[in-house]
Structure formats: structure tokens, C-alpha cells
Amino acid sequence: MTTSTATGNHPPAPAPAAEPPPARRRSPERAALLRRAGLRLLALVVLFALWQAVTALRLWSPLLVPPPSAVWHALVETSGTHDGVRGYQGHTLIEHLGISLRRIAIGAGAGVLAGLVAGLLMGTLPWVRVVFEPAVAFLRTLPPLAYFSLLIIWFGIDEAPKLWLLAIAAMPPVAVATASAVASAPASLVEAARAIGARRSQVVTCVVLPSALPEILVGVRLAFGIAYSSVVAAETVNGLPGIGGMIRDAQRYNQSDVVVLGLFAIGISGLLIDALLRIAENRLAPWRRLS
Questions:
Q1: Three-state SS at 58
Q2: Which of 19, 109, 126, 156 sits between 20 and 30 A of 144, alpha carbons compared?
């Protein structure tokens, strides 16, 4: 009697059942991001509900605190042409905002470049720091309106005083951050670069600046934030078109809904600009997140 074992014709063993793919686990970073987004959304909903409740209870006059519906109506009115009237004072809301952003890009951009140069010189040359640090600190303490009148006397009421104001407001934080970061570059890395024969310019560009880059980028973010908060001051004189000029003009006629709308436009676009700068900071200095 032959068996299946002897003949080698035993039936094949059944294949193991395929295990279902494990559920994809949500990464801790993604969970934390969703949690932060949810908390921020909840905070916005609560603030909007409080705003609606305050206006519904008539705790203040609608002229002082306009209801959300009035601000929405102002958004609709200033975003297109209605009854033959285009936007606000002949320009739509996006046009006002775009002109202000262009002024910030030019003025604050020039201030950031000047701050980088000044900060690099102050951080690498001690005598330059002794000479220019008091002047930079003096400018940093001045509010924009303190010298805007003088800029108008010098340059008139066109674009020049606005750009100069934004440049002067943006320069000090970048200069201070750059000088501090450059001066505190790791001495061991600098000495190692010199030991292998690196020239002074190579030490600055290849060692000092990469080491100082995270702090410099923080200064750049602060500079654009200060310039953005100064745009209303920059557009107090002949600021139309411009979002700050729109706010100032609406304030003269007690149009609080347009004023609130302009504040929202500045705040939301400012958050977007800061987010873009954060992305640039993470791309240019990724090691900062690991420290």
C-alpha cells in the first residue's frame, strides 16, 4: 500500500490567508497640526459669535461696532461695481490691497536689504558697530508717525515718503538681528575655517552667514510685520488708492464697516505673508526645527 508521502503526491498545503493591510496610523505631527487647526477654527467661531452677540444686544451703537452683516455688505460693495460706483473711491478692495502690498514689497524690501548690509558690517567690524549701533537703536525706538511729517517735507506727498517710511521702519530689526547673529557665530567653526586657509570673505559667506541665517530670517519676519503695521501711517497722506488710505478715508466719514473691513484685509493678508515667510524660513534653515 503506497502512501502519498512515499509517492510525493500529497496535496499542497493551503496558502495562508492574506492579512488585511494595517490601518494607516496618523503621524503625531499630522495629528498635532489638525489639533492646532481645530483649536484656531474654534477660537474664530467663538470670536465671531461674541461679535454677533454684542451687536445683537445693542451694547454699543452700530456706528461704533458694526454687525458682521454690515461688514459683509461693505465687502460686497467694495469688491465690484454697484449702481455705477466702482469699489471704494473708484478702486476695488483687492486693488487697494494690491497697491499697499506693492508699497510694502518695495519699501520693506529695501529696508531689509539695508538692514542685512548694516547688520553684517556691525557684526564683523567692531568699529562699525560702535559707530552705527546707537543710530540703529534710535531709529528702532521711533514710531513711524514721528518722522513721517519730516519725510513729507523732504519728498512731497507722492510715493517717495511712503516708501521711505516703510524702509526706515523695516531696517532696524533686520540690522539688530543680523549683527547679533553674526557676532555670536561659533568661534570653533570660524577658527577651523581659518586653520584650513579660508580667507575672511570665505569665512563670512561659508561659515558665519549660514550659522546666522535662522536669526536673520526671524529679523526679516519682524521687519515685514512692522512695515505692514506701519502701512496705515504711510498712507495717511495721499494714500488712495491703498488699503491704509481707504481706512483713513472711511474714518473721516464714520464708515466703521469699511474700517473694519480694511482691518480684516490687512490682518488676513498679513497672516498669509507671515506664513510664506515661515515656509521660506523652514526651507532655507531646516535645521532650526530640529534644534
A1: coil
A2: 126
